[in-house]
Amino acid sequence: MSVSVAERWVEEVAGLTRPDRIVWCDGSKPEYDALVEMMLRDGTLLPLNARTYPDSYLHRSHPSDVARTEQLTFIATREREDAGPTNNWMAPAEAKSKAGRFLRNAMRGRTMWVVPYLMGPAGSSMSRVGIMVTDSAYVVASMHIMTRVGQVALQAMRSDDDFIAGVHSLGDLSPDRRLIMHFPEEKLIWSVGSGYGGNALLGKKCHALRLASAQAREEGWLAEHMLIIGVEDPEGRVTYLAGAMPSASGKTNLAMAVSQLPGWRVWTVGDDIAWMHVDASGQLRAINPERGFFGVAPNTSPKTNPNATAMVRSNTIFTNVALTPDREPWWEGLTPEAPRGLQDWQGQPWQPGTGPAAHPNSRFTVPVSQCPSASPHWEDPQGVPISGLIFGSRRTSVIPLVFEAFDWNHGVFLGSAMSTETTAAITGKVGVVRRDPMAMIPFCGYNMGDYFAHWLSMQPRLAKPPRIFRVNWFRRDADGKFLWPGYGDNVRVLKWMVERIRGGGRAQETPVGYVPADGAIDLSGIDLAPARLREALRCDAAEWLAALQDLDEFYSSFGSRLPATIARQLAETRRKFGG
Ligand code: GTP
Ligand code: SPV
Ligand code: MN
């Protein structure tokens, strides 16, 4: 396969950014090792304890560059309407001129790595190619873990120009000179001024969600912020589910949950992004476009997520965690007590009571293959068959632990009506309730009204539309304590879903959907008062009617692009509540 279009584009970018040298990456182990060597020499990586954390490293990012910066993230379409009211928009020419100013000569004195990467398993018709350039060795090494780099990508191109082009430069890391620009009409991404995950690893949110969602709409598939799991029952039957939850709201944890119910088990296919196609028989099938996890460290422990603590014991890059005197990584929640003599995420001696030692958005980067619960099918080119979809959010009140939509259209409405409390995964205030339909508010690369319509349009193509569930692990009691234990106990909720999918699972009808009937959630082996579960499942008319109030304003922001079906579903919900 000739790569002439790519080569010409790389020359063009080099003309703008002026690197000292250009290196095409092959994705090999020696290449990764050389990058690590280089970063150990210049301090970008710090070595961890070679005995307890072999081939693992700590990266400390710039203190102002620790999370996605949504206010600096733009969708640059010709028409403003095509980006829609939920995205920051800029005209393409202006976007290039603004970001171009920060990119011009940005790579002087630096190396420009060219990273061809494949999103999705080799040999899958659902997989897609990207080629990104970057002046960050940390980004290249992270791309090695998170994607399939090198010849495997170039070989998957169907034509010379069959790739998403991404330009990344650290610039000077100043938030004042940081911009993350998406040009869906040109299959192009420009990112400058950040080295942080979602801003800089362009295969992830920029390509696999923002650009892919726009492509998916045109081509009739779905690119979603979803985990993918197989749930195995005691008879060995596996039911595959995909689930959307906002950033830092439980995808990685659910994706590798260790079941508290004997005989049940969760197999991990993906923890952040799902690409889903309808196959010739009308079955929805999902692939995980990634090959690594970029997971939240805080609260990851042998108790909450033993698969994660096991998988990060080698070949892992940690970012912004604390460091023990034994050179082991540490974060809040890993152990009940903080070890003595910690260095905090910025390398300063840490004292208890002075704030968190690890940054709240500190992360680990590790290959999927190291996950003990990785599904034997996680790289199947044809993907896994999806029979249920989950929409989860982080809400202290109102939203029950779990309920099931009446049908596909109602489920799409429930997804579109989601709101959530913000987390440390984005810069800004934590704990503020905001609208986040399908957990895609920061990631939908086009008008979200059209996105709802696209979701609705899938139904007639599905022989047996997946059941749609809504969950909330984060509801609290009057004392501020979580009503539901969460983590491994979430498998109890998954069990009910699987039963519902198979035509069982007792439920009670409410205005918002089917809520588990008394006793329908298996509580064997835990000490949870039935009253607490009832409180977690409670559906209160007054609370709901109040919560639905600001939906009108949100929906009306889409004008004529809001599908009538969505407005009808809202009216119908109100009517059922007597509102
Ligand atoms: P991104 O990688 O940002 O997309 O996040 P994610 O959706 O994968 O979130 P993750 O599973 O990493 O969870 C983030 C945080 O949510 C964890 O640190 C936990 O504190 C919390 N969390 C996850 N699952 C549960 C749960 O079942 N119950 C409770 N109470 N908290 C949870
Ligand atoms: C998220 O914020 O949803 C993440 C981390 O998964 S990042 O890659 O930074 O987007
Ligand atoms: Mn995410």
Q: What structural category characterises the helix and strand content? A: alpha/beta
Largest sheet features: 9 strands, mixed
Strand content: 15-25%
Q: Based on DSSP secondary structure assignment, what is the total number of beta strands?
A: 29
Question: Which small compounds were modeled alongside the protein?
Answer: guanosine-5'-triphosphate, sulfopyruvate, manganese (II) ion
Number of helices: 17
Task: Throw out a few tags for this protein.
alpha/beta; 9-stranded mixed sheet; binds guanosine-5'-triphosphate; binds sulfopyruvate
Describe the fold and architecture.
The protein has 579 residues and is α/β, with parallel strands linked by helices. The protein has 17 helices and 29 strands. Strands 1, 4, 5, 6, 7, 8, 9, 10 and 11 form a nine-stranded mixed beta sheet that branches. Strands 12, 13, 14, 15, 16, 17, 23, 24 and 27 form a nine-stranded mixed beta sheet that branches. A hairpin with a 4-residue loop joins strand 10 (179-183) and strand 11. The mean pLDDT is 97. Residues 225, 247, 272 line the site of manganese (II) ion.
